[in-house]
Amino acid sequence: MEKVKLKKSMEQAVCVLLLLELEKKYTPIKSKKISERLEVSDSYLKKILRKLVVENLISSDVSKDGGFSLARDLSEISMLDVYNAIEGRGEFLNLSNLAERVFNDKKKIVSREMDIMKVIKEGEELFLKKLDSYPLSRLLGIIDKVERK
User: Fold this and answer.
1) Number of helices (H) and strands (E), helices first, in the chain?
2) CA nearest 55: which of 21, 23, 10?
């Protein structure tokens, strides 16, 4: 079975969030320091950081002593949050109706496209649900807030 491929930026985003968690007392970290620590391009990392800021996973302080820090507790950030920040919230697949150029029977085409979309939608829902059930705090062995109650 072929694997689902995610962008490398997904891994980088998770590592950024974990790095920020490990920084004592949430001291802001400059992007340059993060990119050096992860050994990734600073310009590429800034694009990832921007996406994480937009999704309110991290915050940015542009002051002299500023940098990036977590905007929420790590136990409140799921893999789905990171996925949405990096990949966006659009559907997995949008058909471009190429089948109409191959087959003549439009009824069958519509029926098969609906079948395909149903299977993909069900898979997408399972995938997203699984991501949502995995808080990043689990990667560090931190007890989830839900478990504390």
Assistant:
1) 7, 2
2) 10
Higher pLDDT, 97 or 59: 59
pTM for this one? 0.80
Are 68 and 31 within 8 A, CB to CB? yes
Q: Where are the beta strands (DSSP E) in 18-99?
A: 58-61, 67-70
Q: For residues 31 and 68, what is the distance between their CA atoms, to the nearest angstrom?
A: 7
137: closest CA among 72, 88, 86, 89? 72
* Bridge partner list, 69: 59
Other Cβ atoms closer than 10 A to 149: 5
* Pairwise CA distance, residues 30 & 62, whole Å: 9
Token pair 């560090």 is at which residue? 140
Q: What tokens appear for 125 in the block? A: 């829902």
Tell me the HSE value of 122 on the side-chain side, using a 13 A CA sphere: 5
